[in-house]
Amino acid sequence: MAAGYAELLRTRHAARLLVGTLVGRLPHATAPIAIVLFTRAEGGSYSLAGALAAVYGVANAVGQPLLGRAVDLYGQPRVQLPAAAVSALGMVWLALAGTGSAGAAYGAVVVAGLFTPPLEGGLRALWPGVLGGREERVHAAYAMDAVAQEVMFTVGPLLVTVCVALWDPAVALLVINGVGVLGALSVVVSEPSRRWRSAPRAAHWLGALRSRGLLALLGAFFCVGAALGSITVAGVAYADGHGGQVVYGWLMAALGLGALVGGVVYGARRWPGTPERRLWVLVGLLAVGYPPLTLVPGPVAMTGLAALAGVFLAPALACAFVVVDRHAPVGTVTEAFSWLVTFFGVGAALGTAAAGPAVEEGGAAAGFAVAAVAGVAALVVLTCTQGVLAGPGGGGAVAWSGGSAGGFGGGVVAGAGGGPPGVPQENDRNGVPEPGFRTGQKA
Fold it and tell me: Which residues does 136 contact at the CB level (< 8 Å), separation at least 6?
């Protein structure tokens, strides 16, 4: 399994792009805990800390698809690096101004969240060109990407706590965001990023959201995000009655470990059937893992249940990346991936909000019940939209358009513009593909 990922990383540019993207996304992965720790160190209340973190999340949810659309229109270097710099300046503003003025603090986190660069979607747009258009390799790269996210969201908060222990929360903000800009710089000066161009897109104010298949997927992963958000709150309530913060740490670590193992196994082989059908199965298995958490057994058994609940998360995300690529309208791939990030994040925020009252009324079991309901809702959404997902755009293949210099271009979907595979789309000229346009084999 690891050998398969190692083979991908030996491909020219692959390791640099993956590591650069992960480093560039550290500020986003660590922002909630960094903001809370900084606010408390400044003497701010927990309410203010939570509100600032929430405002950052909302601003990020708004900014991701807008910046993703800008990347599709103007290229990665013109958008990603300036956005990373402005986002970092927002955190510098917060670190220097403190929380004495609530208005200044809110303004700083809005700037930081709104301009967080869409590096995640940008990387997935680059994979087809970097990996030579071989669809099985692109799918494996998506799985590796999902696994790497689990590592980053586990290691990132630890890095913040180390920085706080060595220096203070303000320095932690400056260091993490400075490192993030360096990560974005590493990506955008690379050859694939510089030469990547999105396929020509039809002028439409909805952009990627005009795809019904994409909307169905976003609805499902909004619910998956809600499930995870509710688990973070329910886990705290459970730990309060079973040993405190150490138990909570074990639960969250087990959830991440389960996702890590599931992602590694999923990416180790090529799976039969269409990605849309496979996603339905994976989300169904993910939903099955949440109800047992409502049993709230002892810490050892609960840790095991948490690990099982996480096993199908990374595979479901990896498969979702493939489905996004197949259903994104031509020329909107970065925006489409950014919308997935947004819907997932907003769902997590609402799941957190819903779990709070549930825990107050019925304890930790009620909080985990919110996750169970959200998981079932995700499966229901996919079940009700199978016809949409199997329709136009669902049978496309990984493709990209690129110039003669290197052949790097946007990861788009042949047929995703509304016609079946093989039918000339917006980037075809009288049925003859534009120079440099290549298509991978059908999944």
Answer: 270
Output DSSP code: residue 273.
S
267 neighbors 1 (Cβ within 8 angstroms): yes
Predicted pLDDT of residue 205: 66
Sign of CA dihedral 159, 164, 167, 170: positive
Which SS3 state, helix, strand or coil, does residue 410 take?
strand
* Predicted model pTM: 0.75
Q: Are 26 and 181 in contact (CB under 8 A)?
A: no
pLDDT interval class at 203 (50, 70, 90): low
Of the candidates 236, 252, 227, which has an alpha carbon nearest to the alpha carbon of residue 370? Answer: 227
Contacts of 168 (CB under 8 A, 6+ apart): 41
Nearest to 119 by CA among 20, 19, 21, 13: 21
Q: Which residues contact 330 (CB under 8 A, 6 or more apart)?
A: 199, 200, 201, 202, 412, 413, 416, 417, 425, 426, 427
User: Burial of 212 by CB count in 10 Å (0-12 exposed, 13-18 middle, 19+ buried)?
Assistant: middle
What is the per-residue pLDDT across 17-50, written as a single tens digit (0 to 9) for each? 999 999 999 999 888 888 888 998 899 887 888 7
pLDDT in tens, 381-420: 999 999 888 865 544 444 343 433 333 333 333 333 333 3
The C-alpha angle 342, 348, 354, rounded to 5 degrees, equals: 135
Task: Kindly provide the b/e burial profile for residues 346-362, where b requires at least 16 CB atoms within 10 angstroms of the residue's own CB.
Answer: bbbbbbbebbbebbeee
pLDDT at 436 over 50: no
Closest to 158 measured CA to CA, from 229, 80, 249, 81: 249
Alpha-carbon distance of 4 to 75, in angstroms, equals 30
Comparing 28-32, 85-89, 147-151, the range with the smallest average pLDDT is 147-151
- Percent of the chain whose pLDDT exceeds 90: 45
pLDDT of residue 88: 97
SS3 377: helix
Which backbone phi and psi does 429 adopt, to 5 degrees? -125, 100
